[in-house]
Design goal:
alpha/beta
Length: 542
């Protein structure tokens, strides 16, 4: 279907890809993974023809159509929503324009009629007569209401535009579908719809995503970018991650017999394959696992940060009491009449249909914003540490390198020692000269890792995390996720990472314009609860 031959990409002296040969076949979904800067997005641009390689070439089977999720949210601002979607199938859209032009001719002739008839037959074969209704159905499935289908793209908000562009990429059943971070700015319900759609998609899908739940739900293969090469592995992200960790552990066991190692790997494959039988892909025509061989399991060169949250002291039973908190901004009720107690050991996923409401709620708890009504009180034995969704205010001093930046948050002379500070930075993969970078030139992911170093140094017993996985690579997200599962204190966090919410939270609290929904449950149980679904409709529609 789609193949890559002798592909090399070089920027100056830096070699991004070196003689890459791989292929993507029909019926499979490939998740492209790699460390930050490894070239994931560059690779997708080369596959789609938007960027040329230094050498080598990409070959798409003749007669096959490729569709790419647009990253330009303003490219179609002058067009109606429905037309924007239909442009996704360009051959069909161009044919429709040609037909429309013929029928619009004031001097319509017999020859025009014959031409229109020929084009009409082709148009019918391509599903043209149902194209508008098909596009409308897809838009509705993605949460774009009927009354928005004929509005201009420029009149939509950013999140709605993302949904329309996803519909555009999916429209017309392309033979090869390429998507770079498709779940960004989508809510959990829309992501779930997209997961189900792609799990039952019969053609080739190539996707880059930092959402592990999404990769597990849709991928039949993982394409790992490592050392300038791309290796395809059967299985989803979890299989790749667990198998690579197992292989790394075995490599360190010098004294273990090769036969024992092979038995351990084979047992792992059997266990994983049994779980796969219950996956979404197992019920579709797409098979998630073609084969799993011991030889497929190899250690990864990835570096995982050591995120370890410890507490100066254990908190007492009184953690946080909230009574009647309400806040309205610019005439919009973000939340009202919020009551709940945070209990010792709670790991709360804080959710809302409004990300602005969640962030404002955190800002109130951290005394950065004043509530309109209500009050809150932290327990006297608690200490809090906060990771805000926006952290630029912490990195404005251009004179500070990372050692001096982190030293600001030390509370003892020992903590101010360079060796001590470098130890925390080293855990976040800032070692050697990396620790002397100026704090105002950091990438988004590097800033979050610095903020995590700061939080680790504080040693609080209550953590507040607003979209903690933003900007992080898969390795950092995985390490962060494992750390919170092991943390003995109390956590309240918000996230769009489904796996993060499902594996960390033991309680779900949803703040709405008309009160709070509070359940002791996992995230998946919360989403599946019929009573909760009815209550949510009621709370957001009053």
């Amino acid at each position: 279907m789609l193949s890559v031959s002798n592909l090399s990409v070089q920027f100056g002296k830096r070699i991004l890809f070196d003689e890459v040969n791989t292929k993507f076949v029909q019926g499979n979904c490939y998740g492209i993974i790699g460390a930050n800067g490894s070239g994931k997005s560059t690779f997708l641009k080369i596959l789609s023809g938007k960027q040329d390689p230094t050498s080598g070439h990409v070959h798409l089977e003749p007669g096959k159509r490729m569709s790419v999720l647009s990253q330009d949210h303003f490219a179609f601002d002058e067009l109606p929503v429905l037309e924007t979607v239909m442009i996704g199938n360009k051959p069909l859209f161009d044919l429709k324009k040609e037909l429309d032009a013929i029928y619009a001719k004031p001097d319509f002739s017999d020859e025009d009629g014959i031409k229109a008839g020929e084009l009409g037959e082709k148009f019918e074969e391509m599903g043209g007569w149902t194209a508008e209704s098909d596009a409308a159905t897809m838009l509705s499935s993605l949460g774009i209401k009927d009354d928005q289908h004929y509005t201009l793209m420029g009149d939509l908000d950013g999140k709605s535009k993302v949904r329309v562009l996803i519909a555009q990429a999916l429209f017309g059943n392309p033979d090869v579908l390429i998507m770079d971070e498709p779940t960004n700015d989508l809510d959990f319900e829309t992501i779930s719809w997209l997961e189900n759609f792609l799990a039952n998609y019969d053609n080739t899908v190539i996707v880059v995503s930092h959402d592990r739940h999404f990769l597990d739900a849709v991928c039949t293969h993982i394409s790992d970018i490592d050392f300038g090469k791309i290796n395809n592995y059967s299985g989803n992200y979890t299989f790749w991650y667990e198998s690579s960790q197992l292989a790394a552990k075995q490599r360190a066991q010098q004294n273990k017999k090769a036969e024992d190692k092979k038995k351990e790997l084979e047992e792992f494959i059997r266990r994983f394959s049994a779980n796969v039988a219950k996956s979404k892909q197992a019920t579709s025509r797409k098979k998630m696992i073609e084969k799993l061989n011991v030889e497929d399991i190899k250690p990864s060169s990835r570096r995982y940060p050591a995120i370890i949250f410890e507490r100066d002291r254990e908190a007492g039973d009184q953690i946080l009491n909230i009574e009647g908190l309400s806040k309205t901004v610019d005439g919009e009720v973000l939340f009202s009449d919020i009551h709940f107690n945070l209990n010792k050991g709670d790991k709360v996923a804080l959710i809302s249909k409004s990300s602005r409401a969640v962030t404002t709620f955190y800002e109130i708890l951290n005394n950065r914003v004043q509530a309109d009504a209500g009050k809150f009180a932290w327990g006297v034995t608690t200490s809090q540490s906060y990771l805000p969704v926006e952290n630029s205010e912490y990195f404005q001093d251009a004179s500070l390198n990372l050692v001096d930046w982190l030293r600001q948050y030390a509370t003892t002379e020992e903590e101010r020692e360079e060796v001590f500070v470098r130890g925390f930075l080293g855990k976040m993969i800032f070692s050697g000269e990396e620790a002397l970078k100026k704090c105002n030139v950091l990438s988004g992911g590097e800033k979050v890792r610095c903020m995590l170093s700061k939080m680790m140094m504080v040693r609080a017993n209550v953590l507040m995390l607003d979209e903690p996985t933003n900007h992080l690579d898969l390795e950092s997200i995985q390490a962060f996720n494992n750390s919170l599962k092991n943390f003995k204190g109390t956590v309240i966090f918000s996230t769009h990472d489904h796996e993060f919410a499902q594996t960390v939270a033991n309680r779900i609290i949803e703040i709405t314009p008309n009160g709070v929904i509070d359940r002791l449950s996992t995230f998946d149980e919360y989403l599946a609860d019929k009573k909760v679904k009815e209550l949510r409709k009621k709370m957001y529609s009053k």
